[in-house]
Write a structure and sequence with these properties.
By secondary structure, the protein is an alpha+beta fold. The protein is built from two helices and four strands; from the N terminus they run H-E-E-E-E-H.
Length: 94
């Protein structure tokens, strides 16, 4: 799920699986260490109709040490988002 130059620049990628069987939500959170452009990426899906994918980027040159507090802050929000996802089927009226 981690593509291109981010995977090449990363020192390590630590995937953490997520499952919520009650709401049919499954996914993975990727913690990316090193001076890669994105420190956190994720996706959640129901494995048939829906998928939500996201990445955390900052509009600055990557510096893992300087960005660590901000990454930790936003990572908590990303985990909360993953845990809050509920799929809703919408029927479009003509």
């Amino acid at each position: 799920m981690i593509f291109g130059k981010i995977a090449q620049k990363a020192d390590a990628v630590d995937p953490k699986d997520y499952s919520n069987f009650d709401h049919n939500v499954y996914g993975t959170l990727f913690d990316i260490s090193g001076n890669a452009a994105s420190a956190v990426q994720f996706f959640v899906t129901d494995s048939t109709k829906h998928i939500l994918r996201g990445s955390l980027y900052f509009f600055v040159r990557p510096n893992q040490d300087s960005l660590a507090p901000a990454v930790a802050f936003f990572r908590e929000d990303i985990v909360h988002l993953m845990e809050s996802v509920r799929w809703k089927d919408i029927t479009l009226k003509k």
